[in-house]
Structure formats: C-alpha cells, structure tokens
Design a protein that fits this description.
The protein has a single domain, classed as TIM Barrel (Alpha-Beta Barrel). It is built from 11 helices and 12 strands. Helix 4 crosses helix 5 and helix 9 runs antiparallel to helix 10. The longest helix has 18 residues. It is globular and about 70 Å long. 47% of the residues are buried.
C-alpha cells in the first residue's frame, strides 16, 4: 500500500529497531587478517603506504596473531619476505623459510587460529613475477611444479589451508594432486580464482617487496573489463579441486562477487586489498571521512554482495567493533 499507510521510516526510528530488521549481518567469523612476515627478531618495519601495517618478524607476527585471535578473527593469511631472492624463488618452498617458521610458531601457540598461506612466487623471485620467467614471458607450465612444492612445504609446516594467488592456468589441479599424493588430502585450497590486474595492489607490492622488475602482470592476471571470463575462471578452479574461490579486489568487482554468489554454490571469499585500505586510512587520518563508519560500511557492502569471507587489513579493528 502507498504512503501514508506505508512508512518504511517506522523501522528506522531507533537503533534497536534497525538492528532487529537488519538484512546483512557482518560477524568476526567472516574476516581473515593478512600478515607480512620477514626475517630477523623483534622486527616491526612499517609499510609507508599502509599506515598501521608492518612487516613483522616471526616473534612479532606471533604477538600480532594473538591480538587478532583475541579480537575474535578466526584466521590469518601469511605472506613472506625471504632472506634472499633468486630467479626461481627457491625460498618459497624451503622448510626453514620465514613463512614455514611462522606457521609452526603460530600453530604451536594458537592452535585454534586458522593459518592460511599465500602460494605464489612473486615475493621470492628477484624479478618480482609470480612464476618462472623464460625470456620476457612467464612460463605457466614450468611454474606449476614450484607452486606445488611451495604448497607442500606449507602443509608440512602445519598450515590449515593454502591459497594460490599466482593466476597460472592449472595451478589448483597441480597443487591438489601434490597435496593428495603426499598425505595432505585434508588440506583445503582457497583459490584466487578471479584476480584482476588492478591498480589497487600498489601498497601490497611495497609491503611484500614484490614489484615486477620488468613489464607487468597483465599476461596472467585478468582484464578488469571481463566478467564472463571471471565466471569461467571460477568454474575451472572448482573443477580442479578448489574448496573456496575468491574475487580480488573487492570494491571495483562487487558485481562479480554477487554474480559468483548466484552462479556457484560454494564458499566465496573477497579481498579488500591494500589500495582500498590505504585510501580509507589516508582519508581517515586526514579527517576527511569517519574511518570507523566507512570501514564497517565497506565490509558490510562486500558481505551484502555475497562474500562469505573477507580478507581485510581492517579485520582486527572491525572484529573488536562487532563483538558484543
């Protein structure tokens, strides 16, 4: 019925009424917090383009993980900055590597905190690309074996879940076979299934020290204009054995998060990436926006679009706000 009988404002009148009829509910269990782990001890090296984020040595990463867990966030995802880099990224699958040591340390002290690991070579190669370089090209098939070795090393260290972010064709299947054949059939894969060649990754590349030394990543990350292709990529990763699929970045691709939610009956993640974080933080620190409200609005929007899980550098602070 029309106004004046129908008045939607009646249910907006008080906070209690608004809370009672709220359609989208964000909870700490929806959040995953990224951490950057580096060599050394008692190291906390701030990332200039990401205020509040730092590269952390294993001992400091454990302390941060304790705070994240205490806030109610159920999982972290680890990115590593190695002792040294080479053309093949060999530190990526070293059992004594910084990520492998961080996994073991965190799982020993915080067994209930889920530890997810980034599986990619970009942090570990001296050229900064996500795979083996042959001439001026990234060699897709030569990279698959190395990604499988990296995932296996994370599983041996105690990771709960591995997350390939490289965007090589066939990498989910290669990792799934390697895990299954080596006694890790229980380890799930969260695939960066629709990862776009985005302008919003700049601060991450500073944090992970992974800027390509030549060219760019558009030959393997997706064209931002392609929504149908994103759905094909998700379908392929699911066929290869992915347990969770991801859309990255989140904010420019909310339509694809919603579309993936509709088209695929599986757990869906979205990454609220470094550039999105940096913009909000910069505006908040300058007093241009109410940062706390903006963060909650953004995360609620990503959840409303259809994401089950949200990777975000705001996870700890958002979880604290969400807890009763």
């Amino acid at each position: 019925m029309a106004f004046p009988i129908t008045r939607p404002r009646r249910l907006r009148r008080t906070e209690t009424l608004r809370r009672m009829v709220r359609e989208t509910r964000l909870a700490p269990d929806d959040l995953i917090h990224p951490l950057f782990v580096c060599p050394g001890r008692d190291v906390a090296k701030p990332v200039a383009s990401m205020p509040g984020v730092a590269q952390l040595s294993v001992d400091r990463a454990l302390s941060e993980a304790r705070e994240i867990h205490a806030a109610g966030v159920p999982a972290i995802v680890l990115f590593g900055i190695p002792d040294h880099k080479d053309a093949r990224g060999t530190e990526a699958w070293s059992d004594s590597g910084v990520v492998q040591r961080a996994i073991a340390e965190i799982k020993q002290h915080l067994p209930e905190l889920a530890v997810i690991t980034d599986v990619c070579l970009c942090e570990y190669t001296d050229h900064g690309h996500c795979g083996v370089v042959s001439g001026a090209e990234v060699d897709n098939d030569a990279t698959l074996e190395l990604l499988a070795l990296e995932a296996l090393s994370h599983a041996r260290a105690g990771a709960d879940l591995v997350a390939p972010s490289d965007m090589m064709d066939g990498r989910v299947g290669a990792i799934r076979r390697a895990l299954d054949e080596n006694g890790y059939a229980q380890i799930p894969i969260m695939a960066y299934a629709a990862k776009f060649a985005s302008a919003f990754y700049g601060p991450f590349r500073e944090a992970a020290e992974s800027t390509p030394q030549f060219g760019d990543r558009r030959s393997y990350q997706m064209d931002p204009a392609n929504g149908d292709e994103a759905m094909r990529e998700i379908a392929l990763d699911l066929e290869e054995g992915a347990d969770i699929v991801m859309v990255k970045p989140a904010l420019p691709y909310l339509d694809l998060i919603q579309r993936a939610r509709t088209e695929f009956n599986c757990p869906l993640a979205a990454y609220n990436v470094s550039g999105e974080y940096a913009m909000v933080r910069a505006a908040g620190l300058n007093g241009w926006i109410d940062e706390d409200r903006a963060v909650m609005e953004i995360l609620t929007g990503i959840k409303r679009a259809g994401a089950d899980l949200i990777l975000t550098y705001f996870a700890k602070t958002a979880a604290r706000r969400l807890r009763p």
